[in-house]
Amino acid sequence: MKGSIGGYAGKILHVDLSKRSHRIEEPSPEEMHAYIGGSGLAAKRLWEMTSKETDPVGPENVLIFMTGPLTGTKVPLSGRHEVVAKSPLTGIYGESDAGGMWGAELKRAGFDGIIITGRSTKHIYLWINESGLQFRDAGHLWGMDTYETGELLRRETDQKATEASIGPAGERLALIAGVMHGGRDCRPAGRCGLGAVMGSKHLKAIVVRGEGQVPVADERRLTATTKMLAAEIVKNTKRLSDYGTSQIMTALEEFGNLPIRNWKQGSWKAGAEKLSGVALAKTILKAKYYCSGCIVGCGRTVAISQGKYARVEGAGPEYETVAMLGSNLLLDDLEAVAKAHELCNRYGLDVISTGSVIGFAIEAAERGILTNAQKEEVGLKWGDGESIVRLVERIGRREGIGNILSQGVMRTAAELGRDCEAFALQVKGLEPPAHDPRAYNSLGVGYATANRGACHLQGMSYAFERSVTMPEFGMNKVQDRFGVVGKGELVARSQDLMSLFDSLKLCKFLLYGGVKVKHMLEWFNAVTGFAMSQAEFLKAGERIYNLKRTYNARCGITRKDDVVPTRMLREKRGEGGSADNLPPFDDMLEEYYTYRGWDKNGVPTNTKLRELGLEQAAPYK
Amino acid sequence: MRIIITYALPFRDDLGVKEEAYELGRDSATVAEVLDMIVRRHSSMRKFVDAGSDEAQRRHLAVAVNSRMAKLSDHVRDGDRIRLLLPVIGGSES
Question: Does ipTM top 0.85?
Fold first, then answer.
């Protein structure tokens, strides 16, 4: 493997599906220094290759898979990659981050990323290894679910290969379809409807296998830092390892964060316990799952051998699943949730958007907004596992009412009309994940300003209101979750920091392991050979965040779009740990814009863009 | 004063107790003192208690007083409900 600097393969593969051609791009070290890789570099390419007019499901949209400089190295929890495109769900910047093995395999095959343009006339898949790229017919795979697809593709290529694929939902352009990785081990890039972009290109899968080594500039320095931190990471994340991400169910219910009954109910202790990671470990857990380079193992592999949901086997529910398809729907049957989760994986649906749109539909039915025929089609009821499982299948196939719901909450609400907006939870078209701004004030401004719509991961500021400190930001103690002053700054700085995680391609759970900015920078410099200062490093995070915002501003996004779902802003939970709190949104947003150096309309100023070296983005205004 | 302690999973299974009352011969106690009392009654809870600092304690278990996350120095009063939970780590990524 050749690369002018460590960490990078030094090559991006551009594939034009319309022409069945490809070319290799060699990005410059200066660009890697400025945009790091992963999400940052992908955002730069999306900015350059698409425009306000780009149709997200047209051949002119680009679909980008990008690793980071740490992907495939011995840095712990670095086995991730980013999937980026103009989102068909939101019409703006779209990205989703995935774990698993795929990113590391791509890097070892000699590529930092793949950028796909055009549309194939036939259904195809790509097979990439160190020998190069093959376009292969996927006619026999079209219609298959992602688990079947993974198994068959490994037989056709290499048993050690891994794939990114879409299920029937992506093929049929469901706007809440994601890109799944690793077949039955399913690691999704679920958010923003990127599976529909892949489907629109008639691309079923990208199979990769690599056996090369990722170059490292200073192996000794890398080993020393990793050795120093590894034991601490393992110790601090033991609960995650023991009980998976859903170990937080009971605590988040206690603190009034859990979505319950389409975010309307404040407390549900008994249900939360039945769905918790502890309950899962005692019942359906088969094994832990580790992504490439992981030393935590928060992933769950589950198996159900008998009963109504027998034969469920593979990737198990995460916190977002048990919350959005469980408590949000008042469903406390863990096996039913595991079944719904598996169906989302197989059909290639985002579990967050799917749980959200089902919650919305049940409330609409309750309010008499759905027709009787629509209600009876699946027997929509809170807590009814069978009807919920049935509805997931209908959404995956885009059948009946599932066809409407497959467009996500925003479009479904618009189609139904009749004042649905009050209980249609979304920001810029993206449904919120299972974290409530009424429980963590900073999440309000975080959801409003996240570049892909309502998202907890683009800022993750709530981590600093729960348990994490960050001395580099002057945060030596955990922040008050119900505070106001300083939240705008907290969110902006968290977003810049998360831009670095997303661009290096590090798992954000390292934060809970005790990893600080200085450690991330040490890894980056050791791997690449750069001598970046902490100030430059943080500036790169700010640059990346501002570039994405500028992309959205070019698409017409302004302050009017920086909102919090009405229910989270105006309706108190009424009981539980956040019973009386509503996020003081306007004050926090004002502080946020000021800290960011954006104008009153939420648009980065030319001065700010120049300061960040984003002069090329300034003329659009 | 009388307070109620409830144990979430997995503490409940470990102790075989879901909820229990504590009678304290005074009007107020800190969360740290309550944890100390719990350890005296249930020695197996000792490994989860690290009252050196809030940060250290949060790594082992979370304490909620009347559904509000509590610090070691917070005071509990008559009738308060104290819940012991797994600490808050993570969420999910996608």
Answer: no
